[in-house]
Each structure stands twice: as structure tokens, then as C-alpha cells.
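Lecture notes, unit on protein representations.

Consider one protein chain, 217 amino acids long.
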Amino acid sequence: MTLLDFARGPAMEWAFVIFAIGVAWRLVGMFLLRRDRQQAAARRNTPMTDGVRAIVMRSVPPHELEKNIVFQHITGYLWHIGFFATILFFGPHIPFFKSILGFGWPTLPNEVITVIGAITIAVLITLMVRRFMHPVMRVISTADDYISVIVTILPLLTGLISYANIGFDKETNLALHLLSIALVLVWFPFGKLMHLFLTFPTRYKAGADFGRKGVAG
């Protein structure tokens, strides 16, 4: 079995199994958390409206904080958009999605995606260095913060290397790219990457609870 066969076969298969079980475990655990029964009468009984409002409003920093976190805010949106654009609109990725979904969609030119991928890597590295250098962020950061950034960078980096066909031979580059994707899937349920599934539900729940108490969410 070659490295590419291993990456395409057992590594990716087990990565998807761990990803699926891990995500299910986290989500089920969240929904089964013990909740104390609300004793006070609701001041407002519009949980859906309050929940959706919280999702929208908390996607933008409060005006009072914006001037202090504008860099983090802009770069955060920038790398997320770049990351998903690279995944969803890179030509070589579409056959994979088509094999699963049965259909594909238009792509961006490979040269454009290459630039987007490079910018995304640069932004992630900048954020990681800033986290390490900033006195407050360094104190509140954990190993998870750094590991999550690194495992996010690796598929982008190995993808660009594989597309450019530099470094190792073509098969090895592709195998390393697939292994980096498998690493993301394995780490996903256990690190902060899980926020992809948790962000909106937790914001909705907080907004619904605040609305019940008559507090602006």
C-alpha cells in the first residue's frame, strides 16, 4: 500500500468515522445537559425572535467594542471566507463533491483560488503570531488555540503545494494534502473548530434565554 492509497483509504475512512462520532457526541451532550426548570414568569415569550436576533446581532461586535477589536473582527471574517471559498470553489475539489452529492457548481479560476488560499494562510499565521505576542491573548490562550490554527493551515498549505507540484512528487504531495484533511476531521470534534456547529445554536439559546428574562440579547 502506497502513502496515497493509505491517505485515500484507511486514513480518510477512519477520519470520517471519528469526525461523525465525535460531532454527534458533542451535539448530543450539549442538548442533554441538565437544565434547571425556569421558576420565574417569562417577561417576554418570543424565543424564536429573540434567538434569531441574537444570532444576527452577535455576528457584529457591539459599537462600544468595535474600535478595540476591529483588526480581529475583519481578519476573522477574512480567513473564514477565504477558507470556505478555497474549499468550495477550487476546480480540483468539485469532482469530490460531485461524487458525494451527485452534482457540482461553477468554480473560480484556479489562479484566483491560489491567491485567496495564500492570503488566508498569511492571515491565519498573522493571527497566530499576534495571539502569541499580545500579552493578554497569550495568557488566555491554550494549546487548543494554536493546534486548531495549525491544523487549519495545513490543508491550505499542502493544497497549494500539491497544485503547484513542488517539493515532493505529485502522488506524495496529494497524499500529504489528504492526510492534512484527515487530521482536520480527527481534531474537529475535540478542539475549537467545533464552533462551526456550536456558534449559532449557542447564540440562539442565549438570545432566547435573555429574551425570556427581558434582557436585550
